[in-house]
Amino acid sequence: MHKVYLLLGSNLGDRNKNIELAISELKDCGVIISKMSSLYNTKPWGYTEQPDFLNQAIECLTILEPLKLLREIKKIEKNLGRTDTIKYGPRIIDIDIIFYNDLILKSKELIIPHPLMHERYFVLKPLSEIAPDFVHPEIGLTVQKLLEKL
């Protein structure tokens, strides 16, 4: 089993329900949820002319390899009604792979750890609640230290 940290976000429709449905669908594809952060209302990042997001970090266990997990996540997002919009634009659901064990992966389809996670409060705050001592495999700092540096 692989330990994976995901970040879920929603800023359209019933944000709570969207995150609940995403978690349910993750469970349906064999992902075991081991920890969940609180829900955080956060300002949008990148493109700011949109509603606030609701974000939640989850720790999960899976047998899915990284690209297979990504494909399942993309299916879930589509099932819940996500459509392509502008970069960093509004969305019904967004699920990002933040960490996958201590793997460093750089491919056309997927980069792990998430390349911008250390610059984003909306990632680090919920993640620090469930994994404050997890060390970023490239930067060498804990999630808590990364949050403090923002």
Number of self-contained structural domains: 1
Low-confidence stretches: none
From the 3D structure, determine the CATH topology: Alpha-Beta Plaits
CATH superfamily: 7,8-Dihydro-6-hydroxymethylpterin-pyrophosphokinase HPPK
User: What is the string of helix and strand elements?
Assistant: EHEEEHEEEHH
Rg calc:
14 Å
Number of continuous helical runs: 4
What is the terminal-to-terminal distance? 32 Å
Strand segment count = 7
CATH architecture: 2-Layer Sandwich
Strand percent estimate: 25-35%
Helix content: 25-40%
Please outline the major beta sheet: 5 strands, antiparallel
What would a concise description of this structure say?
This protein is α+β, with helices and mostly antiparallel strands and 150 residues long. It contains four helices and seven strands. It has a single domain, classed as Alpha-Beta Plaits (2-Layer Sandwich).
